[in-house]
Write a structure and sequence with these properties.
Layout lengths: L29 H18 L11 H13 L4 H21 L1
Helix pairs in contact: 2-3
């Protein structure tokens, strides 16, 4: 039986054939790469003195934060931190009174 280039039903004939596509540059699976990248990100954040806080907000609040952050040319995370620090300073000042 001759090997026909367009015939893909006989998989054993094409087992060693390289298929075109994006070359695999990393021996790890995508899942493993994501896990390693996340671990490295957490280490970077920790060394920069950052801690992760999860916050759930409704869509209106998120939209308002996004608009204000864009207007101030900063990230939403930076804006939330700035607002929290201002509010903490106000509350701390009230405690002294």
């Amino acid at each position: 039986m001759a090997k026909e280039q367009t015939d893909r039903t006989t998989l054993d004939l094409f087992a060693n054939e390289r298929r075109p596509g994006r070359p695999k540059t990393n021996p790890l699976s995508r899942d493993e790469q994501l896990r390693i990248n996340k671990r490295n990100q957490l280490k970077r954040d920790k060394s920069n003195g950052l801690k992760r806080v999860e916050l759930k907000l409704n869509n209106d609040a998120v939209d308002a934060l996004n608009e204000l952050a864009d207007a101030r040319n900063m990230s939403r995370s930076e804006l939330i931190e700035e607002i929290l620090m201002q509010q903490l300073a106000v509350l701390h000042g009230q405690e002294r009174d």
